[in-house]
Amino acid sequence: MEQLLSKFKKIEPRNEFKEHSRALILNAPQNHQPGMLLYIARMLNFKTGLGMAAVFIVVILTGLSLLNQRLARSELVSGLDSQELNKEVEEFNIQLSQVRYYENSAKRIEVALKKTSGESITPEEQKEGINQLLDELIL
Amino acid sequence: MNLLKNKITKYITAIILIAGLLSPVIPIYAQETFKTVLEEITEKMEQIEGIKNNTTLTAEEKAIEETTIRKEILSKIFELTLLENQDLKTKLADVKNLTEKEGGLRDNLLKMLKENELVYQLMQERLEKAQTLNEIKQLAADFKDWRALVYNPKVEKIVAFILVFQEERILEIARERLQKIAGSLEKLETTNILKKEDTAQLIQKAVKNLDEAEVLNDRAKKIIVYLLNNELSQQIKWGIGDSLIYSQDSFITTATVKINVNNSLEYIRSAYKLFIEIGNLVKQKLNK
Fold first, then answer.
1. pLDDT for B29-67, tens place per residue?
2. Across the interface, do B183 and A75 touch by the CB < 8 Å criterion?
3. Residue of B nearest to A135 (CA)
């Protein structure tokens, strides 16, 4: 029995078999794929990084110039919008018309008081009645 | 602590903004009341005609009706005069950016309005006591004379004063608008949508117009200040450029002030027409 066991100790595969198995194992398909991150990380060397930075800069600059153009157009809208300009002129007119009321009212009220006091009124004064004053009140 | 401060500031800003939005409405409201009172006066004046032509009434009845209506008309005219008084007070108070001297003149004008109040009181008392048609007619005649001799001349000066400074403010706004437009054009030029030559001439014209407007407004101001300092219209020296021109034998009145203000406004209107022209030109270029 002891002789058998010591014989077993010396067992080795044939060289042929050794080589064959080794080749098989080494050439067997790998089950584990490297992950996307690993793939990208491999790409992130200095050169690629520089290239990407350049691209980003161009994109940002283009974006900024487009924004500038947009803003320039909206500047146009705010500064030169004809509606706004006309509105400004309208406001001037309203302000001034309120003061202008007094230029006409004195005569008209005089006519009204003349009538109330029983004084006779000329036809022109009759024409320049209060109705005209009402029309001239711009509201 | 800072958070609270921010909240309060925001709150106050909001209130001020809302008040600012409402402020253009308030003077319009005053004019609305003028309109209402004037309409009432017109209605009642027509009623007098109606009574006169009414054949169903006796002479006595007519007299009674007429007295009532005439009294009401007179009362409405008083009311209108008081409204005018208040309106002018407000407009005077609204004039901004006065020098000390000009502020002094404004105070004098406010005093003139205050003096009227005594007369109103007296007239009101007489109106309440007036019973007969003749008393009403006499009161109307007296009020007419007072308005012609005292009230209207005061109002003319006040109105001329307000006009000059209102127009000055309008000129300021026009200049600000021009600045805004020039700034916008500069920005557009950087984007190469526009070239400077496209709008340079128009801008120049606009500047010239506003400069002319300023000359006329200054002239109007000189005249009204002179008039208010001296109640009588006299000869006046006015400077045009470096040379002095004497206006001989021409009496300067508040009408002269208004003419200058109106001419100044015409230049401002021309400037705005140019602004609109520039706007259209730029729109054209943008749409290309």
1. 566 688 888 888 888 888 888 888 888 888 888 888 889
2. yes
3. B35
Q: Which of residues 54-83 of A touch B (CB under 8 A)?
A: 65, 68-69, 71-73, 75-76, 78-82
Contact B177 A102 (CB under 8 A): no
User: Can you give chain B as a three-state secondary structure string?
Assistant: CHHHHHHHHHHHHHHHHHHHHHCCHHHHHHHHHHHHHHHHHHHHHHHHHHHHCCCCCCHHHHHHHHHHHHHHHHHHHHHHHHHHHHHHHHHHHHCCCCCHHHHHHHHHHHHHHHHHHHHHHHHHHHHHHCCCHHHHHHHHHHHHHHHHHHHHHHHHHHHHHHHHHHHHHHHHHHHHHHHHHHHHHHHHHHCCCCCHHHHHHHHHHHHHHHHHHHHHHHHHHHHHHHHHHCCCCCCEEEEECCEEEEECCCCCCHHHHHHHHHHHHHHHHHHHHHHHHHHHHHHHHHHC
Nearest residue, CB atoms, A88 vs list B31, B159, B177: B177
Per-residue pLDDT for B136 more than 50?
Answer: yes
pLDDT tens digit sequence for B141-199: 999 999 999 999 999 999 999 999 999 999 999 999 999 999 888 888 887 777 888 88
| ipTM tops 0.85 | no
Inter-residue contact B68 to B127 (CB < 8 Å):
no
Q: What percent of chain A has pLDDT over 70?
A: 80
Instruction: Name the minimum distance, in Å, from the CA of A54 to any CA of chain B.
Output: 23
Total count of residues recorded for chain B = 288
Establish if A106 touches chain B: CB-CB under 8 angstroms.
Answer: yes
